[in-house]
Amino acid sequence: MDHQLPSHLVEATGNILAGHVGPERAIRRSEIRAKLYQESPLFHVVNDRQVRSAIETLREDGWLICSLGSDSDGYYLAGNMKEYEEFRQFYTAYARTIFTRIRTMDRVAEKRWGGSALQEPLL
After folding, report:
1. At what angle do helices 29-39 and 7-17 cross, to 10 degrees?
2. What's 7-112's CATH class?
3. 83, 40 Cβ separation under 8 angstroms
4. How far apart are CA 77 and CA 82, in angstroms?
5. Alpha-carbon span 54 to 32, nearest angstrom
6. Which residue in 53, 99, 109, 114 is deepest, having the highest Cβ count within 10 Å?
7. What does the pLDDT look like over 64-91, one tens digit per residue?
8. CB atoms < 10 A from the CB of 21, how many?
9. Residue among 60, 42, 53, 61 at smallest CA distance from 4
10. How far apart are CA 92 and CA 85, in angstroms?
11. 0.90 exceeded by the pTM?
């Protein structure tokens, strides 16, 4: 996701999340930042956006990182298929909402400015 994100930040974030399996063990991003801060002076300047990017990078690498409701409510690793399926349902609903909004915005942009080079996603 963020090509300038240090690999040691992604790895350290993964190490923290490894101890948080199941929704009852969810950890907030602010708590992840606090643990990173305690871990090394290298992480004293890490901001919330970088932690979020590290989590997304781990997801892209196949980590089954789930979240409670909204990202700031807490993250956890799915401990079983049911936990993953519940998160997946929430996550895909969020993605559908974004695609619906962007299609509406595309139509308005095309009406306002004429023809378009916008292409439908290949999903």
Report:
1. 120
2. mainly alpha
3. no
4. 12
5. 11
6. 53
7. 999 997 656 899 999 999 999 999 998 8
8. 16
9. 53
10. 10
11. no
